[in-house]
Structures are given as C-alpha cells and as structure tokens.
Amino acid sequence: MRWYGWLAVLVVVIIGGAVLVVLALDDPELVTTEANVMSSDLEVPAIGFTQVTGDYDWQFPQDFGPHPDFQREQWEIQSGEDCEMSFTVLFDRASFVAETFAPERESAWAMNGILQATLRVEGIQTGEDIDVTRSSRMAAELAGADENRVWVEDWVWNWLDGTLVIADEDARLELTLSNENEATPIAEMGWNAYTVVGDGSGKIELGEQANEISCSITITHRFQ
Q1: Is 140 left (phi over 0), alpha (psi -120 to 50) or beta?
Q2: What percent of the chain has pLDDT over 70?
C-alpha cells in the first residue's frame, strides 16, 4: 500500500474514534457507570480545577453546598457508636472536565461528571451486611448537587431541612437530623473537610425487618 493509502486509513481511524467519544458523551445508552468508577484508581486530568492548598477560608452556610470548581466532592453520613445498627451513606461526585473547559452541547444527556451514592449497613441480626450502590451521570436531573441538596435519582440528602432518603430493593433509610452544632473544619490529607455532629431519628427497613433509629449522626463534607 502506498504512503497515501496508509494516511487515508489513519485519518479514518482518528475520525471514527472521535465520533465514538462524542456519542458516548451525548447518548445515555453508550455510557456505563460501573460501581468502581469512583475508586481511588480513577485518574482524571485535574487541569482547570481548584487545588487544595491547606488554607481554605470557610464560609457557612455557603460551604454546606457543592463546590463545582473542585474535581472531587463527598458528603458522608455516619451513625454514631450509640446506634444499634451501624450505617454509612456516601455521596461521591467526580467531575471529568472543569466548567471553564466544558464544551457546550445541546443534548440534555451530555455530562461532565458522575455521582455515586452508597449505603452500607452493618450489625444486622442475620449477620449479612448490606452494601448497595447507585450511580448516574450528572445530566438531565438524574444526579447533581445544588445549594440545598445532593441526589442520585431518588436517593437524596437535603442539608437544608436535614432529611436523608435512600430507597432500594434491599434497604430503605429515612432519617432526619436535628442539629444545633456548628461545622468544625478537620484535617484530612489532600482534602478540605469539616464535620457536623447531631442527633438523628428515623427508620431503616431491610426486607421485612424494620428498625427505628435514634442516635448521634456525624456528617462529613469534603472536597479536593
């Protein structure tokens, strides 16, 4: 094959690859959000995102909300040691492209990041711990975070009114946090983070088993 023949093949391959990338970003059927995409092995370029410097100027209540200029953000709700059943809820956001560089696309399905929520329950009488996860792209209102709440479909943590709702086939958690304490910044390597401790009440349903909840709850919000 002459050199211009190889050049034509190369051009076709490059164009084809570009088309697949665009389709994957705009077509929900071609995007798979597996449970492990939020693992510590996820390596995404941090160009354009704000970096953690260790001297963050906290401003509340604004900092209860999302920080889209940072690439990664987590909201974690944990039961205290006085709870009969130990549970943790984690909302984990990862952005792929900084808003400054995000391309403008007409499709409502176009995304620049994903959100994953996980519920872990331990101390169940049957001895079988519960670990359920839900992931979705941050597009078309499937998942996101605003000044009042973070959500993945119908899994919602609303810090404005202190309510948490997790609904799954294996487990359902409804919790209301009664909090009178102030947020306390904490030191976490590589993160800006703070905690809020309060009293939680509600219920958790695991299959046919229902348990009332009344114990201390710790909320940790971190971003990097």
Answers
A1: left
A2: 72
